[in-house]
Every structure is written in structure tokens, then in C-alpha cells.
From TrEMBL:
Keyword presence, Transmembrane: yes
Pfam assignment, any one: MacB_PCD
Domain MacB-like periplasmic core: residue ranges: 19-236, 498-693
Coiled coil, from the record: none
Family annotation (InterPro entries): ABC3_permease_C, MacB_PCD, Macrolide_Exporter_MacB
Organism per entry: Streptomyces chengmaiensis
Membrane topology classification: Multi-pass membrane protein
UniProt protein name: FtsX-like permease family protein
UniProt domain ABC3 transporter permease C-terminal: residue ranges: 273-393, 734-849
UniProt record similarity statement: Belongs to the ABC-4 integral membrane protein family.
Main localization of the protein described in the UniProt heading: membrane
Length: 857
């Protein structure tokens, strides 16, 4: 009990310092708990949606893929209406209805604005069925009754200001058609963001599937008392052809699995960044307790002198850490729930609707938060606690500070140098690797070893780097600058730990910046070298290009040719007898002009001949294929063909790497028209000297189709740069949490350092140091510590990024580009971070009473 009282007294005596450390614990725990609550809530939302909308038994074509939102043909797999008749007559079926559903559509309003989601959620078009009433209610107007009527969901109507009577145009591979809104239906469960439109059954069949009398699903409802499993068996027995049958549970599970894989990636990525923040928080806590222990050295000596054992002193410090961990973790759990609600509101603002009614806080979430916060805090405080327990009573009574252990410092430096050297060797090995898998292992090992090495060797580096930084900066500012330098060098271990916290976040920023810039530079160089087409036409959502767009492009003036580019799925059997699933590119012969591919054998133009194809040199080497060999190609949905290898292309590229080419006419020989994929891309070549006019004409020709874009090579490069930039900005935003925790560490270090130097500060004030000079000294000390951490982090990160780029060169990313503007901006920004972190400590030091400071023991 005495130990607990002592710990509580010490905790309360330094509550301001503890509060900053508690904030670090709070932020780390909040990010972990917020991530768990947010992803659990999304899972709950989708689970409810899938469970409510699933029929007792769903029948779909055998080839249908629930996860394929954009089938290559642009039309979903379908089955004849006779299946509906058979299912309706099956024993135990109370009701059966045919459903039509397609996600390969675009819906636009009268102003030609896309009504789809901006978050990547699909636009779903289909017929209105009784099964839809399980999840939706018509709240305005009525269901569609003919080809000129359409019903929309309420979320889409509210988002785009749609009302009854407004006209919508639906774009599908079968053509465009218009209809007026006859009704609006509201979801009774949360709709995560999909835009949904409904037509009458005949219109949906004709416009989405190409002909009436077809369905994509048959939905069967069982009689009371009949289990879904038994109903599935009865339907399977009644159908004489192989169809895909799913019970309500199986259909819901399939939907959960599809969404769950995406949510898992997002969850673990966010938890990874939370882990970085936790690691940075460890440095803050270690520094805080180290300094608090150092300031209480005399007090600890007195405790030892009156009979306290090492274990009791150790336990006292650990109890303080336990209190800190519990308080920070409890607050962090609460903050995490608030963070999750904030993320839901953010997602709502960009189109993904998540209701707080579905807010899911599992018991494991607060448990994980509490355990994480407490364990991390206690573990971080163990080294300072152990150090406190080792202080001898007489040494402590003689000295108000903790004497440095020179031998321990030399051992630490030796270990740090060894780890850093081993890490550097691993990075070099990764950069020289011939295989990506082997190189990745060495890269990961090198990153870990160099990071740990820099952390361990931090005190040694602090003495060197701080002097280097001070020479051109602090020493030019006179005595105040030199005092700031000496203060930063006074305790290299403390400076090293404080700088290391900032180093971790900035190292990741630098590494990802180098990799991102190198990716863009490599792709840009490859485009300049390989792409001969003037224009590339693609879809924003990855949907197939509808024939209407292709026809409009081909009619544009000033265009020499338009090249089709389709992706065909097939089973490929090589001469060595191995059969593999492959995706082949079926293109026009002009594609050989639009993309300049290097061949290692044969001529690429010959691959576009009758019953001919090309393969990549990696495939050829793996299977012993050479020019003149014949491959068996079993087209999925069509017949098998014997195609002669007319060319082998080099895979030393990142554009169409590994692609196998054939003529579109070859694919059309073995695939029925309804199985022929739509174009994935289109390429266009302008008449020489008319590129500018053709560019404008192409854009105008497809202006009625807002989801498709025409890009020249400049646009394409900028689009790639923007995509990488957006991804990096998201990563930088997540890393900001770790940097905030690191800034708290600088604030805490400076604040405790000011307390530690109270008497010294009083003496300096007494001999003439002004308040302004004192504040400047503390600010400069903070700046040099921040620059020290930034220099280490940026240098380390650029080393990681360079090694990663050399490894990625095996995949065609051969250009190493250091983003110096970003690196310099981050370095200069670190100085402002140091200034910001010093504001409060400098202000408090300036207000210190001189006489009281001198009298401080």
C-alpha cells in the first residue's frame, strides 16, 4: 500500500508531464480502437444488407461470378425463363420469381451527369421484384410499369436532387435508353453507397440482357417449415442442367467474403500505421520516465536509505506507468469510438452511407485497447524503472542526477553499429537480387535492422549530427545558439531517443516518396519509349467500353485508325503438357504500331495473322516454347484452337508485361458473339499534324458518355502521377498520427528538461540572460533536435526507397528518382515542427521567477 501511495503521489506531482505521455497513449489506442469499430460497423452494415436481400434459394448460371461487377462481355450471365417455370413447380417452393441484375451500366441525368457513386460502389440496374420489398419500401410514386418508366433509390435521388418525372438515360452494351422516374424506393437497411435503378421485367431483359425471356437469377421462397437446405436439394433435383444454387446463408456468406477481403486489407493497413504510432509513443514514454527518474535521484536515494528495496523502487515506477497506461487507454477507447463515428461521417460526405444505428463496439475492442495501452506503457517504463532500482543510496544522496555508464554507452554504440552495418548489407543484397521473392526478404530484413540500429546508435549519432547541424546555423547566432547546441548535446541518449521518434515517421515518408516518384518516372519513360498511339480511351470505373463509344470514335474526323483491345480468358496448354488459366489480348493488327514491343524471336506483326499468337519470354522460357510451336487454347465460353507461336516478346517492360497477343478475328472464330468480350481499351492515331484538332474532336464525339475519357500521352502521365500522389497523400495522412506523437515527445522532453535545469536557468537569468534570449535558446534547442530526427529519418528512408526501387526494377520500374522538392520541404518543415513544439516549454521557462529558480534544489 505504501508503494502505491508513493507512486500515486509522484504521478500527481508530475501530472502535467504525465498528461502529454497519456495523450500519446490515447492517440495510439484511439487509432487502433477506431479502426476496429469502423471496420466492424462496415461488416455489420454489409451483413444486414446481404442477409435481408438474400432469397431462401438463389439459382444462377453456372458461369456466373458474384464478385465480377464488370463482366468482360458487358452483360451478366443469363439463363432461359424455363428455369423459372421449373423452379416454380418444384415441391416446397411457395413463390419463385425471375430477377435481372446488371452492374455494367451507367446512368446519367438530363445534364449528362453520372448518377453513380464516387466511392467505387457499383451502379445496379435490374427489375423490381417481391424479394426487393424485403429491403426496400416505395416511398414516392410507383414501381415501373413500362419501357418509359424507372424507379431509383432514395439515397441516389437525395444525393443528385432527382424527383418524380425527371428523365434518366441508361447506357449499356446493348444501347442507350431513356425513362422517366416513376417512383422512389427507400432502403430499410443501410445502403453503403450503391446507386440502384429498377425497370419492369421485360424492359430490364431487353435493355440489359439483349433479349426478353432471360434472367440472371431465379429467387425461390420456401414453404413454411421447410429448411433452406432441403429446398435447395429439391430445386437441384428438379433442374436437369448444372446451375449454381445457394441458400440464403450461402449467398450472404459469399457477399461477406467478397466485401470482407477488402475490409481486411483496409483494417490491417490502418492497424499497421497505428502500430507505428505505438512504436513512436514508446520513445516518448521511455524519455518521460527516464527524465522523471533522473530528477528524483535524490528522493530515490532517501527511499533506499530508509529501507526501500530495489524491487520496491522498481515497482513504484512501474505502478506510475500502470496508472498512466490505464488512464490513457480508457480515454483512448472512448476517443476511438468517436474517431469511428467521424470516419463514418467522412465516408458519408464522399458517398458511402454508414448509419450510426449500426455502430458496432465488440467487447474485444476495448479489451484490445486497454491491454495494448497498458502493456506498451509498462514495457516502455521498464528500462527507466530498472535503472532507478539500481541506484545505490550513497551515490544518489551525493548526486542529484544519474551518472552515465560509459561502459554501457560503448556497448550500445558497438551493438548499434553492428546492427546498422548488417542492415545496410541486407539492403545492398536486396538491391542486387535477381529474384523478387528473395530480394523482398532481404529488403524487409534490411529495413528492420537499419531502423533498430539507428535507434540504438542514436546517442552516438546525436553527438555527430547535432554538431554538423549547429555549425552552419546555431553557432552563427552567438552565445544563445551555442548554449542551445550544448543543451542538445548535454544528454545524447535523450536527444537520440527524442529524434528517433520523429525519425521513424519521416523515414517512411521519404521511402514511399522515393518509390512513388520512381514508379511515375519509370512509367513515364516507358510510355515515351513504347506507346505510339496518340490517344488512349478508357473507362473511369473499369467497365467495358460500350459499342456506341467505339462507333463515335471511328466516325471522328482526323483519325487514321482506332485500335480495339479486348481481354479474352482461356486455358492454355503448352508443348510440355502444362495447362494454365491465362488472359490473352485480342487486338487489331494496328496495335503493333500503337505499342512498340521488343521481340526476342519472330515478328510481332505475324502474331496477328490467322490462327497465330505471341507469348512473353518468361512464359516461353518456363515452358520451353519457341517460335513455330503450337499451343492449345481453350477459349472460355467457346471452342478450342491450335494457335501457332509467331513471336516471343520481351518482358523487360512495365507496359503489357507478359501479354500474349492475337488478332480479334482469331478470337471471334472460336467464341460465339454473345461471349465475345467488349473492348477494355481503345487506341487512336491522328493524322500527322492534326493531333490537336483530333484531340478536341474525340472528346466531343464521346461527350454524351461521361464515364469514358480520352487522354493523350500527357494526360495519361498526369493521371498516373495524380493516382500515385493521391495514394501517397492518404499514407502521409495516416503517418501524421505518428508524427504528432513524436511532436508530443519533443514537447515533453523540452518541458522536463526545463524543470531539470531550473536552477541553471535561474543563474543564467541572474547574470544577464533576458527572457527573449532564454526562449530563443529553448526554441533553437528544439529546432536542432527536430532537424536531427529529420536528417536521420530522411536519409534512412531514401536508402530504403533506393533499395526498394532496385528490387522493383525486376518488374520494369528501372528509373530511380529522388523527389528532392518533397525531401527539402519535409526537412524545412521539421524546423517549424521544432519551433511549434518549443512554444509552451519556452513560454513557461520565460515566466520562471529568478530567485525561486536559484533557490531550487
Amino acid at each position: 500500500m505504501t508503494v502505491f501511495k508513493t507512486s500515486l503521489r509522484n504521478f500527481l506531482a508530475h501530472k502535467g508531464r504525465m498528461a502529454l505521455s497519456a495523450v500519446a497513449v490515447l492517440l495510439s489506442v484511439a487509432f487502433v480502437c477506431g479502426t476496429l469499430v469502423f471496420t466492424d460497423t462496415m461488416n455489420t452494415t454489409f451483413d444486414k444488407l446481404f442477409s435481408v436481400t438474400a432469397a431462401d434459394v438463389t439459382v444462377s448460371p453456372r458461369g456466373a461470378d458474384d464478385t465480377d461487377q464488370n463482366p468482360r462481355t458487358g452483360k451478366p450471365e443469363s439463363m432461359p425463363a424455363s428455369v423459372l417455370d421449373t423452379v416454380a413447380k418444384t415441391e416446397g417452393v411457395q413463390r419463385a420469381e425471375g430477377a435481372v441484375m446488371s452492374m455494367s451500366v451507367t446512368v446519367v441525368n438530363a445534364e449528362n451527369k453520372n448518377m453513380g457513386s464516387s466511392t467505387g460502389a457499383p451502379t445496379i440496374a435490374g427489375n423490381w421484384t417481391q424479394n426487393d420489398l424485403k429491403a426496400m419500401e416505395i416511398t414516392s410514386g410507383h414501381a415501373p410499369r413500362g419501357p418509359t418508366e424507372v424507379m431509383v433509390d432514395a439515397d441516389t435521388a437525395d444525393k443528385h436532387g432527382l424527383k418524380l418525372g425527371d428523365e434518366l438515360r441508361t447506357i449499356a452494351v446493348t444501347g442507350d435508353f431513356t425513362a422517366k422516374i416513376s417512383g422512389i424506393a427507400s432502403f430499410e437497411v443501410t445502403n453503403p453507397g450503391a446507386a440502384v435503378v429498377y425497370f419492369d421485367t421485360a424492359t430490364a431483359q431487353r435493355e440489359l440482357l439483349g433479349e426478353e425471356g432471360l434472367f440472371t437469377h431465379v429467387l425461390a421462397t420456401g414453404a413454411d417449415g421447410l429448411s433452406d437446405e432441403q429446398l435447395k436439394k429439391n430445386v437441384a433435383a428438379a433442374l436437369d442442367a448444372p446451375y449454381k444454387l445457394q441458400t440464403a446463408k450461402e449467398a450472404a456468406d459469399a457477399g461477406r467474403e467478397e466485401v470482407g477481403s477488402f475490409l481486411d486489407v483496409m483494417k490491417y493497413a490502418m492497424l499497421g500505421f497505428a502500430g507505428i504510432a505505438v512504436l513512436v509513443g514508446v520513445f516518448l514514454i521511455v524519455n518521460t520516465f527516464s527524465m522523471l527518474v533522473a530528477q528524483r535521484t535524490r528522493e530515490i536515494g532517501l527511499m533506499r536509505a530508509i529501507g526501500s528495496s530495489r524491487k520496491q523502487v522498481n515497482r513504484s515506477v512501474l505502478l506510475e506507468a500502470l496508472l498512466l497506461g490505464v488512464i490513457g487507454s480508457v480515454a483512448g477507447v472512448a476517443a476511438g469510438v468517436g474517431l469511428a463515428v467521424g470516419l463514418m461521417e467522412l465516408m458519408g460526405s464522399i458517398g458511402m452511407e454508414l448509419s450510426t444505428k449500426d455502430l458496432t463496439v465488440k467487447w474485444t475492442t476495448p479489451a484490445v485497447g486497454l491491454v495494448l495501452g497498458v502493456v506498451v506503457t509498462v514495457v516502455a517504463a521498464y528500462i527507466p524503472a530498472r535503472r532507478a532500482g539500481k541506484i545505490s543510496p550513497m551515490a544518489a544522496l551525493r548526486d542529484a542526477g544519474m551518472p552515465a555508464d560509459a561502459k554501457a554507452g560503448r556497448v550500445r554504440a558497438a551493438v548499434g553499429l553492428l546492427l546498422t552495418g548488417a542492415g545496410a548489407a541486407a539492403l545492398v543484397t536486396a538491391a542486387r537480387a535477381d529474384q523478387a521473392r528473395q530480394g523482398s526478404m532481404f529488403l524487409g530484413l534490411g529495413v528492420v535492422l537499419t531502423l533498430v540500429g539507428f535507434i540504438v546508435i542514436g546517442p552516438l549519432l546525436a553527438g555527430i549530427v547535432v554538431r554538423m547541424l549547429s555549425a552552419p546555423t546555431l553557432r552563427l547566432l552567438g552565445p544563445v545558439g551555442r548554449l542551445a547546441e550544448r543543451n542538445a548535446l548535454r544528454n545524447p541518449r535523450r536527444t537520440g531517443a527524442t529524434g528517433a521518434a520523429l525519425m521513424i515517421g519521416l523515414a517512411l515518408v521519404a521511402c514511399l516518396s522515393v518509390v512513388g516518384s520512381s514508379m511515375v518516372a519509370s512509367a513515364t519513360e516507358e510510355l515515351d519509349k513504347s506507346v505510339g498511339a496518340d490517344f488512349i480511351v478508357s473507362s473511369d470505373g473499369g467497365q467495358p467500353i460500350v459499342p456506341q463509344v467505339q462507333a463515335a470514335l471511328e466516325e471522328t474526323q482526323g483519325i487514321v485508325h482506332v485500335t480495339e483491345y479486348r481481354i479474352v480468358d482461356a486455358e492454355l496448354t503448352s508443348p510440355d503438357g502444362k495447362t494454365e488459366d491465362e488472359s490473352l489480348v485480342a487486338a487489331d493488327p494496328t496495335y503493333a504500331q500503337d505499342l512498340r514491343r521488343t521481340t526476342v524471336a519472330g515478328e510481332l506483326s505475324a502474331a496477328y495473322g490467322k490462327n497465330a499468337m505471341s507469348v512473353g519470354d518468361s512464359y516461353a522460357e518456363e515452358h520451353g516454347v519457341k517460335v513455330g510451336d503450337t499451343l492449345t487454347v481453350a477459349f472460355k465460353g467457346g471452342r478450342s484452337a491450335q494457335l501457332k507461336v509467331a513471336a516471343i516478346t520481351s518482358d523487360d517492360t512495365n507496359v503489357d508485361k507478359g501479354a500474349m497477343y492475337m488478332n480479334i478475328t482469331t478470337a471471334a472464330q472460336y467464341l460465339p458473339a454473345e461471349k465475345m468480350p467488349q473492348n477494355f481499351l481503345l487506341f487512336a492515331k491522328a493524322v500527322d499534324g492534326q493531333e490537336k484538332e483530333a484531340y478536341g474532336a474525340l472528346k466531343a464525339s464521346i461527350a454524351d458518355y461521361p464515364t469514358y475519357k480520352v487522354q493523350n500521352q500527357t494526360d495519361f502521365k498526369q493521371d498516373l502521377k495524380d493516382q500515385v500522389g493521391q495514394l501517397l497523400n492518404i499514407v502521409y495522412g495516416l503517418l501524421a498520427l505518428a508524427i504528432i506523437v513524436a511532436v508530443l515527445g519533443v514537447v515533453n522532453t523540452l518541458a522536463l528538461s526545463v524543470v531539470e535545469r531550473t536552477r541553471e536557468i535561474g543563474l543564467m537569468r541572474a547574470i544577464g540572460l533576458s527572457r527573449r534570449q532564454l526562449r530563443r535558446m529553448i526554441r533553437l534547442e528544439s529546432v536542432v533536435i527536430a532537424l536531427f530526427g529529420a536528417l536521420l529519418g530522411l536519409g534512412l528512408g531514401m536508402g530504403w526507397g533506393a533499395a526498394a526501387q532496385k528490387l522493383l526494377a525486376l518488374e520494369g520500374l528501372e528509373v530511380l528518382k529522388i523527389p528532392w522538392p518533397t525531401i527539402v520541404t519535409v526537412f524545412i518543415g521539421s524546423a517549424f515542427v521544432g519551433l511549434f513544439a518549443a512554444l509552451v516549454p519556452a513560454f513557461r521557462a520565460g515566466r520562471m521567477n529568478v530567485l525561486n529558480a536559484i533557490a531550487t534544489e
